[in-house]
Amino acid sequence: MIPEAWPWWVVGFLLVLDIAIRITAIIIIPRNRRPTSAMAWLLAIFFIPFVGVFLFLLIGNPRLPRARRRKQDQINEYIKETSENLHFGTLRPNAPEWFDALVQMNQNMGALPLSGDNGARLISEYQESLDAMADAIRRAETYVHVEFYILQSDAATDNFFRALEEVAARGVSVRVLLDHWANRWKPRYKKTIARLDAMGAEWHLMLPVQPLKGRMQRPDLRNHRKLLVVDGRVGFLGSQNVTDSTYNLPKNIKRGLHWVDLMVRVDGPVVASVNAVFLADWYSETGEVLSDLDITKVETGTGDLDCQVVPSGPGFETENNLRLFLGLLYAAKRKIMIVSPYFVPDEALLIAVSAACDRGVAVELFVSEEGDQAVVYHAQRSYYEALLKAGVRIWMYRQPYILHTKSLTIDEETAVIGSSNMDMRSFGLNLEVSMLVRGAEFVAGMRAVEDRYRALSRELTLEEWMQQPLRSTVLDNLARLTSALQ
Fold first, then answer.
1. Domain residues for 256?
2. Whole-angstrom Cα distance, residue 15 to residue 19?
3. What's 164's domain CATH number?
4. pLDDT digit string (tens) for 350-386?
5. Helix or strand (DSSP H, E) at 384
6. How many structural domains does the chain have?
7. Same domain, 251 and 374
8. Cα–Cα distance between 70 and 76 in angstroms, integer?
9. DSSP assignment, residue 66?
10. What contacts 36, CB < 8 A, 6 or more positions away?
């Protein structure tokens, strides 16, 4: 309601401004944006014009700032040039034609080359993973590269940090990257930074939001990668952060929540590719080129797996991780297993999953029974009816555990493991890293992990789902709409 005391010219100005905002939004917002995202932003601006415009100006640009984009272009060129020297190892014979095409597509979009003769060991126990990384660090001779979305010094990670302290004390270079926003407001941040300083580690924040220092971008962009490289010989990547399984958050501790993750230890030529991702992120944050490190010197691994590292994020022209997932979903002939704590698909991904079911492919989705992020949890739930009707079997990992693993396996010899969820945030806003693996023995290991997850889950049926109360449906649909605001 317009106050009667307002002069007519104020009312007229506000009406003209309102119309101008709507017309401008129709012109600007849909350009180079997903239809679902554009529609969500237009609805927000049309229903709440001034608030909608403010939010759009704050988080409506999914791209990195111009200076960082220039750096990312240089990084992509670096990866392209480096890739010419990273075709290592003997590849497994008789690769399907679609697999070779998928690998080439990945490389065209900015991924590292496919390398052979790699070893990989899956680690599904939370503390075992932290201790395995600590053991690898203690064997370091030259350098340790640490890059994690969340990095916290606590009782669970003390062994990891003590390993860093020990190698730093004998002259090993310790370089650390951690996401600014994900750590700055978390418990133990100051203690963690103080411990890094005390050991002499060189550390930097990723994607810092520090406007007073001239460092600013969309505040909800995240570097979500989790990786570790030791001397270019051993690497780790996957879904797990370096923190206690409760993340040390009082709300999680109160609810008894614990995270369940999956990491992979790799050796062989693929470690050079993991290292290239770290070096690229290091340059992006520091402007420093670590030219004294020759990542083209590699060793043959303990296995014969073919592996390709696929970085993704807003610095790339395309959504590399989404296209990788789509390619695999369309290639599957018998079985698809998806493990994703936050499964909020765009239209293309939802169609790919449904089409697989229509082809007679057995599709199973593993999610958590309980959510730790309300909006994402409800947005994910909004897709359950469509998935169940398409024929997807949905397994809900029982509370109080949050199944945080991110993986995709198809048929008998192809898998992806990494940091990327299957949601619109991971596709468009997060910097992620995924590893494509070809090898029946690796997929067999993944199947064993999936079997354990299934044994600890309950199956959601369509009959049960259709009994959801109306209030839950309303919340789910509202969350689905907000998830598209990118």
1. 66-102+114-305
2. 6
3. 3.30.870.10
4. 999 999 999 999 999 999 999 888 888 898 999 999 9
5. helix 384-390
6. 3
7. no
8. 10
9. H
10. 346, 347, 484
